[in-house]
Design goal:
about 250 residues; alpha/beta; Rossmann fold; two-stranded antiparallel sheet; about 20% strand
């Protein structure tokens, strides 16, 4: 079991050097920062920030505006907690800059946006539900990154799409029994195509357990517990499957 440390037991090394603040801030920046602070504190806060990523809550006015026109139907209605777990884990490893990351079952795209913002990755955000993409674009905009949307289910991610992918990630994407086999096939297809690393996080649901069993029984992957304290205390599990040379 692993809790906030790498598998070799060594303390995590920082990935990014801290950015020194600019001493000269104009009044508009100060106002924007004060408004941002107000939105992130107190009982009625409308957003949070952790691991360098800004995430809006459902009550935020921009999210509410989008929800009047777009209604995700496959649980793409918010940023789910175990996304933060995978951010914490990836932050203690290393994704090479300009790596191609495929964020499958992306929902609001927070995990892929993190990879783009903190690790300089090229990100494709994949989801079966096209109604999530306006929320992906919103979060990409406020985090000042670009991601490429792709509408597809697990079986719809073809070998051609996987050809130049280095890392495949997904968070809370195995919550129904019917998802186990398509996700298993996608992971196998990815590894056989040359994807270096697959990382899937989950709160510990039974369908995810069956997915883990398949890969552990064949010696192809391993699952471990993980926890983070940012933006709050969250615990769950991560499945890691490596193909060829590790990318993390």
């Amino acid at each position: 079991m692993y809790h906030g440390r790498l598998e070799d037991g060594k303390p995590a090394r920082p990935i990014l050097e801290p950015v020194r603040a600019n001493r000269y801030i104009d009044s508009r920046d100060q106002l924007a920062r004060s408004e941002l602070h107000a939105s992130m504190t107190g009982k009625n806060r409308t957003e949070t920030r952790a691991h360098g990523v800004r995430v809006l809550f459902s009550r935020h006015s921009e999210v509410q505006r989008l929800k009047q026109e777009h209604r995700p139907v496959i649980h793409g209605t918010r940023a789910w907690d175990v996304s933060w777990l995978l951010m914490d884990y990836i932050g203690r490893c290393r994704i090479k800059p300009r790596s191609h990351v495929l964020d499958v079952g992306c929902g609001w795209g927070i995990l892929g946006i993190y990879c783009a913002k903190r690790h300089g990755a090229r990100v494709t955000a994949v989801d079966k539900d096209p109604e999530v993409f306006p929320f992906v674009r919103l979060h990409a905009r406020i985090n000042r990154v670009r991601v490429t949307p792709l509408r597809a289910d697990f079986d719809g991610v073809s070998v051609r799409r996987l050809n130049d992918v280095d890392v495949l990630v997904g968070s809370d994407i195995c919550f129904w029994d019917s998802m186990v086999d398509p996700l298993r096939r996608l992971i196998l297809r990815a590894v056989r195509t040359g994807v270096r690393t697959v990382l899937i996080s989950d709160p510990g649901r039974s369908p995810f357990g069956r997915l883990v069993e398949h890969f552990e029984r064949r010696g192809m992957g391993r699952a471990f517990e993980w926890s983070t304290g940012r933006p709050r205390k969250i615990r769950g599990e991560i499945l890691r499957v490596d193909g060829g040379t590790n990318w993390l």
